[in-house]
Design brief:
Blueprint (H helix, E strand, L loop, with lengths): L3 E4 L5 H9 L3 E5 L2 E6 L3 H10 L4 E4 L6 E6 L11 E6 L8 E2 L3 H16 L3 E11 L2 E6 L6 H9 L4 E4 L2 E5 L5 E2 L5 E4 L1 H9 L9 E4 L2 E6 L3 H5 L6 E10 L6 E4 L2 H11 L3 H4 L1 H13 L1 E7 L2 H19 L3
Parallel strand pairs: 3-5, 9-16, 16-18
Antiparallel strand pairs: 1-4, 2-3, 2-4, 5-6, 6-7, 8-9, 8-10, 8-11, 11-12, 13-15, 14-15, 17-18
Helix pairs in contact: 1-2, 2-3, 4-5, 4-10, 7-9
């Protein structure tokens, strides 16, 4: 059988929805091939919007994962419809309300990669590239990590990931995925004002995280997602209302501890995970960054990248 290939935008929405319903559509996300199925119109619309520039295959001979978002066969489908996420036929977590189905697709893929792809060292962190150098932004929820990531991705930095930083176990190269950026609550309004020409999935309300939506990645980031790069900076961001921007060096030992706490498969990899964290921190400059205004943040990281470029050029 001949496998059809192209970018999602080359398909009409009607054809895209048909392939998705039949379970024939496979998205290429970085080096992963994810075969997808859903008969839910909201899921089809969201994927078509958010992955418009990603490569696809129809009926490939091989896929790394087979995922499905569908209505579960339970009594609640009659009065409180739900959606469930399946990966290779297994349901890893409980169903969610049906209106959260588009977001569930994204959250499910995050879980799938974090739970299964241990050939990478996986850090709960955003990552972006500039001049061949990767910036890693690990941070707990509420730190402004995704807001900062979205602003940088649409202002001169190439998006690798807003949620999962993936490093090659052997050589520490970062793998780009350029998947949609997850934003919530006030961050949605901030980035809508800041990035005026982007595409969004429908907003979902009353989730455990509040109001949620996803922002389609920049086209250039998708086109270059096969290009890897090495980490250069590890920056722990923190949003503080009305604070002046402050980028300060942090100690290597504390950075090791904090990065290990953000690594999702650190304990699974054991000694390999420990060695990777220490190698990464040895290789990178580590900072704390406090900010309140995105304009200040962009200037700070612009100066950081320019300083590194001047150093590499011998100035």
């Amino acid at each position: 059988m001949t496998v059809i290939r192209g970018s999602v935008a080359q398909l009409s929405f009607v054809d895209f929805s048909r392939f998705l319903k039949e379970g024939k559509l496979a998205l290429e996300v970085g080096s992963l091939v994810i075969r997808c199925r859903s008969i839910m119109p909201s899921v089809a619309k969201s994927i078509y919007t958010l992955y418009k520039h990603h490569p696809f295959q129809i009926s490939p001979d091989f896929a790394d994962f087979y995922v499905e978002v569908k209505a579960p066969a339970n009594l609640r489908r009659w009065y409180r419809p739900q959606a469930e996420f399946l990966v290779d036929g297994e349901r890893p977590f409980e169903p969610l309300p049906k209106d959260q189905a588009p977001a569930l697709f994204e959250w499910g893929i995050n879980w799938m990669v974090a739970a299964s792809c241990h050939f990478w060292f996986t850090i709960h962190a955003a990552s972006l590239e500039r001049n061949g150098q990767v910036l890693i932004l690990p941070a707990p929820p509420g730190s402004g990590k995704s807001t900062l990531c979205a602003a940088l991705a649409f202002n001169g930095w190439r998006l690798f990931s807003d949620e999962l930083t993936l490093l090659d176990i052997e050589n520490m190269e970062a793998q780009a995925c350029a998947r949609p950026i997850n934003l919530k609550n006030e961050s949605i309004d901030i980035i809508r004002r800041f990035v005026t020409d982007a595409e969004w999935s429908p907003e979902v309300f009353d989730t455990l995280k509040g109001r949620v939506t996803h922002l389609a990645p920049p086209i250039d980031s998708v086109m270059k997602m096969r290009e890897r790069a090495f980490p250069r900076w590890v920056v722990f961001p923190k949003y503080v209302a009305d604070a002046e921007p402050s980028l300060t060096l942090r100690s290597k030992p504390q950075s090791c501890i904090d990065l290990a706490e953000n690594a999702l498969n650190y304990s699974i990899l054991g000694e390999t995970g420990f060695n990777l964290v220490t190698r990464l921190i040895d290789h990178c400059d580590c900072y704390d960054f406090i900010y309140s205004r995105l304009e200040d943040a962009l200037l700070t990281f612009e100066q950081l990248a320019e300083s590194e470029q001047l150093t590499r050029n011998g100035f």
